[in-house]
Amino acid sequence: MRRLLLVLALLWAGPALAVEPGEMLDDPALEARAREISKGLRCPVCRNESIDESNAELSRDLRLLLRERLLAGDSDAEAVAFITARYGEFVLLEPDRSGANLILWLAAPTVLLLGLGAGALAVRARSRAAPPEALSEHERARLEEIMKG
């Protein structure tokens, strides 16, 4: 039981270990803002991992850049806009839902609904099909002859 608790504690604390103590800001409010923003920024090196969780060197650089921007007086939106302008929308874990991104956001649900509709039409068409006719006496006799072999 103790081993399980230790493993769970390490898994839970794992992402928190990515931000090194030397990176943290002295002001707890600014640090909280930085941590909240960094949870929404994707590590360009890692796959779908935030810069807050990633141990990659580039993620560390992005965390430091974010903290520099906050210390310079940027709002949360301005800091994110600065990083997005430098690295592109790819760094956003959840891109905005406008413009070309709207097509991507709506594509999956649309395809799912089209697939469900096609499946429903196929089931409906199959249920409307005429039931198979019963075998004639000649066909039944031939089948029994084949089965006896």
Automatic annotation (TrEMBL):
Q: Which keywords are on file for this protein?
A: Heme, Iron, Membrane, Metal-binding, Signal, Transmembrane, Transmembrane helix
Report the leader peptide range: 1-18
Gene Ontology terms: cellular component = plasma membrane
- A molecular function GO annotation: metal ion binding
Q: Where is the CcmH/CycL/Ccl2/NrfF N-terminal domain?
A: 7-147
Where, by residue number, does the polypeptide cross the bilayer? 102-123
What Gene3D superfamilies does this protein's entry cite? Cytochrome C biogenesis protein
Family under the similarity heading: Belongs to the CcmH/CycL/Ccl2/NrfF family.
* Function (record text): Possible subunit of a heme lyase.
- Quote the protein name from its UniProt record: Cytochrome c-type biogenesis protein
Recorded source organism is Oceanicola granulosus (strain ATCC BAA-861 / DSM 15982 / KCTC 12143 / HTCC2516)
